[in-house]
From TrEMBL:
Origin species: Streptomyces arboris
A Pfam family this chain is assigned to: bPH_11
InterPro entries referenced in this protein's UniProt entry, alphabetically: PH_bac (IPR057446)
Domain of life: Bacteria
Protein name, entry field: PH domain-containing protein
All copies of domain PH, residue ranges: 58-180
Segments traversing the membrane: 26-43
UniProt keywords, alphabetically: Membrane, Transmembrane, Transmembrane helix
Length: 192
């Protein structure tokens, strides 16, 4: 037979809930903030290190004199996503500001492609440096629906570069592919 413990004995044995240890909680929060700051610092250092590795990349060309007087083949307003080593969609190029995402305005003429980026460095790709254009879905870790990115491949010094753009009106992408590929084929024909 079991004996029941009287209720007054059970009540006497109860302990009150432990009070929150604020010093331990604050220490954990501070530790977490320090860890986050360390991760961001390491990311920044990695970005600078990548820029130093790519320091052999020549300076980017600027818009030539009289470019505004050229006959405009196409214009595009949208976003510049990034530039990578051609064929390597994750090998981002950060030298000379090519790794900075920004708004962009593209202008294509017979002399080349003018890339105007408010808030980032502008650059010019001469027609002789253009290699091809294509539609793709991923570049530098940015993945979009199939055909969501306009990729323009061009030569800069000894390096082949893929630059990714996304128009505000995705229906324009195919016209850009056709125009750039036509320009590269006529430029190759005159260079021979």
């Amino acid at each position: 037979m079991t004996t029941l413990t009287p209720l007054y004995l059970l009540a006497a044995e109860q302990k009150s809930a432990e009070v929150t240890d604020w010093s331990a909680r604050i220490a954990w929060v501070i530790g977490l903030l320090v860890f986050i700051a360390l991760v961001y610092w390491l990311m920044r250092e990695g970005w600078k290190w990548r820029g130093r590795l790519q320091s052999d990349l020549p300076e980017l060309a600027t818009t030539p004199e009289g470019f505004d007087d050229d006959e405009v083949l196409l214009t595009l307003t949208g976003r510049y996503h990034a530039s990578t080593t051609a064929g390597q969609w994750l090998d981002r190029i950060v030298a000379h500001g090519l790794g900075t995402r920004s708004r962009t305005e593209l202008t294509l003429t017979a002399r080349g492609l003018d890339v105007v980026r408010p808030g980032a460095s502008d650059f010019f790709i001469p027609a002789e440096a253009l290699r091809e254009a294509r539609l793709d879905k991923a570049l530098a870790g940015k993945v979009l629906p199939e055909g969501g990115l306009l990729i323009i491949t061009w030569a800069h010094g000894e390096t082949q570069i893929d630059s990714g753009f996304r128009s505000d009106h995705a229906a324009e992408h195919q016209a850009w592919v056709d125009a750039v590929n036509h320009l590269t084929s006529t430029t190759e024909g005159t260079a021979r």
